[in-house]
Structures are given as C-alpha cells and as structure tokens.
Design goal:
Farnesyl Diphosphate Synthase, about 290 residues
C-alpha cells in the first residue's frame, strides 16, 4: 500500500482548526492568576496538546468516519479524493490518539484526564455506534465543550498545580462552551446536501437553514450577555464594557449573516468569531486582575 504525502497528512489534521482550543487553554492559563515565571513550558506543552494533538486527532477521526459524506460535500478532501490511500486515515487517528495520551501524562492528572475526556468525545462525536454528530444539538455541544470549556479549565488547573479552578473561571468556561455550540453550527451550512442524504441531523438539516442561523446567533449571543452580567456582578464593570462592545459588533454582523446563512456562514466565521474569542481573553484577564493583590 502506498503511503500518503506529508502535505496530505497535514491537510487531514487541519492546522487551521487548532487555534480555538489552544486559545481557550491560554485563556485558562491567564484566568488562573498564576504568574507565568517558571511556567512557560507548561503553557507551550498544554497548547501543543490542545491543538496539534487532541484537536488534530478529532479532525482525523471525523474525516475517516465522514468519508462517505465528504465524497458528496467535499470530494477534494484527502480521503475521498484518494490522496489518503487505504485505511491510512484510521491509522493516523489511532496513532495520534495514543501520542496525545502519552504527551498528556506530562501535565499531571488534570491534564491527562482532560485529554482522555476530549479524545473520548472526539471518537464519540464521529464514530458509530454513538456518532453524536447525527444530532446537531448533542454533537455541537460536545465540540463546544472540548474546544472551549475543557481546554480553558485544563489551562487553569494545570497552572494551579492540579487544583480545581475557581468557580468564576469554571462559570466563564461553561458559558463560552455554550456559545461555541453556535460557532460549530456555522460549519454545517456548507454541508447541508450531503448531511441530509447521509442522515446527519445537523441543525440546518433539522431546523432549516434560516432557523438554524437564528438559533446559532442566539446561542452565541446569550452566553456572552451572561458573561457581561457576571463581570459586572464581580465588580469588573470596565472589562464587562469591553465584552459588551465586542458582542454589539457581533450582533450587527449576525443580522447580516441571518439574511443569507449559506452564503455568509464562512464570512461570519472569519470576522465574527474572532470577536467572540477576543471576549474570552478579555474575560480571562478580568479574572486575572481580580486575583492580583491590590
């Protein structure tokens, strides 16, 4: 059997998707309030685990079990195009799972446990018999939890020496996980035809394109409103104003996105989502400032 080119393997692992969990891990590190001196290695190792390892594994797993759907929606992808021959896609998914678990041992019990849970959800999302992605509600929730909340909580816990993150940090991690549910829906608009034919119940398939766009927008916006209210309650009104401003810009863009969801989902991903994740970091720094001695 021929072996795939390095460029094809890199395409399978989708480096462009690594940013969200790496960013969320960094947010958790910031929110922990622990000084970075002497902890840079943990930050780098955690971001490598979150992105190039665990997230990349999820991409390989998803592409292998979605190869028949991709043959309809995106036949140019590595597996349906034949550039990833035989069962190489599955072999890479299994190998990256093992490598991720090995690296995770260097981050202690919290890091290993979080990586194991993230990998379990990655396989459950794509692989039968569970295949969470056939239900857009559950599948997107699993992705949002892995990409944002789990990575944030892990960063906070690792920096704190394995201690449980603060309740405030966990609250923000949970809210941004819920918001990420809507972000995951943005990826589904391009695949409606193949998803419908192959029985994948994404929200655009279940609700219709227009309704799914409205739901995604509300799901992204409401958790951010909750973040603003919490920051105000915690005496961090100045940072709350920044998050509110970023949300206001998103709402303006959501109005344009919902007018033509299929055509503008990629546009919103490119310009609206960066505002969402910027709010995450502003919130993380708000917690950090509150934790510093006055």
């Amino acid at each position: 059997m021929s072996t795939p080119a390095f460029s094809t393997v890199a395409e399978l692992l989708k480096p462009i998707t690594w940013f969200p969990p790496m960013w969320a891990f960094a947010c958790g590190v910031v929110a922990s309030g622990v000084p970075m001196q002497g902890h840079w290695a943990l930050l780098v190792l955690g971001m490598v685990l979150a992105g190039p390892l665990v997230c990349a594994t999820s991409q390989a797993v998803n592409d292998w079990f979605d190869r028949h759907v991709d043959a309809i929606n995106e036949p140019q992808r590595p597996i349906p195009s034949g550039r990833m021959p035989g069962r190489w896609g599955l072999y890479i998914a299994v190998a990256w799972t093992g490598l991720s678990l090995i690296v995770a041992t260097a981050l202690g019990p919290w890091g290993f446990g979080a990586a194991a849970l993230g990998l379990l959800l990655a396989w459950a999302y794509s692989a039968p018999p569970v295949r969470l992605k056939v239900n857009g509600w559950w599948g997107n929730l699993a992705c949002g939890l892995c990409y944002e909340g789990l990575a944030w909580a892990t960063g906070a816990a690792v920096m704190a020496g394995g201690s449980m993150p603060s309740g405030r940090s966990l609250a923000l991690a949970g809210l941004y996980s819920l918001g990420a549910h809507g972000i995951m829906t943005l990826n589904d608009f391009k695949a409606v035809d193949g998803d419908r034919r192959m029985g994948v119940g994404s929200l655009p398939v279940r609700l219709g394109v227009q309704n799914a766009a409205r739901v995604a927008s509300w799901v992204m916006a409401i958790p951010q409103v909750c973040v603003v209210l919490l920051l105000v309650q915690w005496g961090l009104a100045d940072r709350a104003m920044w998050v509110a401003g970023l949300l206001a810009l998103q709402v303006l863009m959501m109005d344009r996105f919902t007018d033509a969801p299929t055509e503008r989902a990629l546009w919103y991903s490119g310009f609206g989502v960066p505002l969402f994740v910027s709010g995450m970091m502003v919130s993380a720094f708000a917690l950090r400032s509150a934790a510093l001695p006055t």
